[in-house]
Fold this protein.
Amino acid sequence: MDRDDTRPTTEEDRSAAYIRAYMGRARAAQEVFELKSQKETDEAVRAVARTVYDNAEELAEMAVAETGMGNVPDKILKNRQKARIIWNSLKGKRSKGIIERDEGAGVTKIAKPMGVVAAITPMTNPIVTPMSNAMFALKGGNAIIITPHHRATGCSGETVARIRKALVALGLPTDLVQILDEHSRENTRNLISSADVVVATGGSGMVRAAYSSGRPALGVGAGNVQCIIDRGADISVAVPKIVTGRAFDNGILWSAEQSVICPDDAFEAILREFERNGGYVVRDAARKEALRNAIFADGAMNRGAIGRPAEAVARAARIDVPADTKVLVVLADGPGEADVLAKEKMCPVIAAYRYSTFDEATGIAKANLESEGKGHSVCIHSDSAENIERAALALSASRFVVNQVCATSAGGSFFNGLAPTNTLGCGSWGHNSISENLDYKHLINVSRIAYNMEGNPVPSDEELWSL
């Protein structure tokens, strides 16, 4: 039999052919979709959100069963809330054709698709991240191909399958949203080097790969949210919010509170408030060391602790805690490099610090961010606009969330002005190209018509050079 010369002969050839098939389907679908009206585009975006909203319970159960991370009730809430909040933020916004006419500047803006989006999605958010990336891509008239984490292929794949079914019901091309059904690093590398733009939400290795792909890339940095309680803040209001954020989905959100920095004259009262709200305080050196060893291995997060409930983490450290414990509060020995507890802990453990002056509080937060999480988010509980702005001026973070549950608010909410998303850019501090929440505007090209404005005033030299 003659040899078939079209058949891939190496793994690299086979992977390249596999991705070319995905890209061909995506480009064909995108060419059809970009001609749709704004109304038809928005119907597709809404269908993605409704798919996750309507299937929130089943998809949450699948995610926990497959990944072993988080808990079903919080994932149900996350599926529903993210679907609602993101759709609400996109509803009514122009993203096709002429989107703005600035008569004063003589500029008209026209939105156009980027083409095919490649999205790397994590196992920590295997439902809502594919959902939001698909919504942003479709809002801009793009097609999207998702490469999921290898430990979340089942639940992410089922999410995409149901989204595709909803798009078909609208008479749209099925292949507007695709997901790789064969997971390998070679396939991911070939995908991100073939797409028109890459969105990477996941570990630092994948984000670096995205930025090295030769394609425009949008990635995220590590989280390590520092939470400052200002003097005068109502701790009976602040502490329950911090507990809620630290415990949410067993602590796997990058936007979750990681350290609580407290005024020394209220420190013990704050710890008692934690205990009243399901916190268990770890004070003595031996148990602190046991907890460090349970959470970290050679300075890196112990995978066996990621997304586990507080009781399970305590059990791994051989610490007996009440069955209703939500959060472990551990008194750190120092900020930054002084104690590994200053780093991100992807489980319901929060490090506690005390300060005498507000500048000392921001100094602790700065040291911890320099250790890990620079550029991500800071949470402040305060009634002082002056101190809030002092912290924002002093710290290298992209978001400062005030008097809110940071875990569920830094990614946007109905109650703040941050763009709802699951991909939080960290700027140059976190080696990212954006220092804001990713949304559809990052996945469109904008053409500008510049009209001749003959009547524009030209300043004299005196006016021009004066301050």
In short: The chain has a mean pLDDT of 96. Residues 230 and 384 are 8 Å apart (CA to CA).
